[in-house]
Amino acid sequence: MLSILLGALLEWLAVPAALFLAPMLSGIAVTAAGGSLRIPFWGVVIAQGLVGCMIANMLPPAMLPEVIAHWPMFLFGVVSVILISGFLGWLMARLRLLPGTTVVWGLSPGASSAMIAMAQAYGADTQFVALMQYLRLVMVAAVASVVARLAGLGGLHHKVAGVWFPPVAWLSLGETLLLAVSGPIAARLLRFPPLSLLVPMFAGVLLSHRGLMVIETPPWLLAMGYALVGWWVGLRFTRPLLIHAAKVLPRMILCILALIVLCAGLAVLLIVFAGIDPLTAYLATSPGGADSVAIIAASSNVDAAFVMSMQTLRFLGVLLAGPALARFVAGLVEKKRASSAR
């Protein structure tokens, strides 16, 4: 009920991605107040698969040739965000704003589960790392929605208010649901959680652009998917976790704001030197989760294909290089502290 009421308010205010932000903020409110709700994990991963299908619908068939043709720009965008997060993590750890190497793992722009697991193996406080990762998702989504709103852009659902139940091609809807489920199945079999999003996304692009299927994502279905993903993020902020991190929470917020501002600086470079429109550039370089950025991009008048091409490449880059970079930076910090202790 809280999600519905807050969602209606945000929709009325024409806030982009209101149907994602409202459940996320509602989840935070419930758990911070002492609630103990839990969302079945299978529901969350299927919702992520559904978001993957939506992203597949947003990506053009010429994405790969487009990326190859403008590879310096995409390489700059992807590598810069990863390096900025690594440098900022190193700097904040050197300044000892947070305990241990928490900030190194917590600022990684994606692959949250991998970073939390790596942090545990490296002896960092996994509760702090988890809170910082989820706090990053919340803050990036909130700031991006505010930026989109200030740019004078209303939400997708705001523009199509009243068309919640359009005519549905039921065969296509069934195929889309099977595609959404394929990701979680692959993730479980291969024990690699990011496949929940990646398999429907890439398979959807291949199948739909070859004319083998039509991706059908009616508004009511997307709203349910957005709600599950939003609840999953929001309900991570349990009261014990917030109490555990109360003393360092303001410093976590400061670090994440610094990351958002530095990535916004990259967006300025894309605007000036590549002629990308401001909101598209901002969302493309935003250090949030690929699924949350996709939801915001889908509900704003931006070049969604460019945004998701950049976000997808960075997501893959973080999966491949992020843990190694974070481990390297954490090692530098620990060596410096060990030498200082002598």
Averaging pLDDT over every residue, what do you get? 82
End-to-end CA span: 57 Å
Structural class estimated from helices and strands: mainly alpha
User: Strand-and-helix sequence, N→C?
Assistant: HHHHHHHHHHHHHHHHH
Report on the biggest sheet.
Answer: none
Number of helices: 17
Radius of gyration: 20 Å
Q: What is the 3D form?
A: globular
Residue stretches low in confidence (pLDDT < 50, at least 5 long) are 153-161
Estimate the strand proportion.
under 5%
Query: Helix proportion of residues, in percent?
Result: over 70%
Q: What is the count of β-strands?
A: 0
Q: Layout of helices and strands, plus pairs?
A:
Elements: H1 2-12, H2 18-32, H3 41-58, H4 63-69, H5 71-94, H6 102-106, H7 112-121, H8 126-150, H9 156-159, H10 170-190, H11 195-209, H12 219-234, H13 239-244, H14 249-274, H15 278-284, H16 290-298, H17 304-341
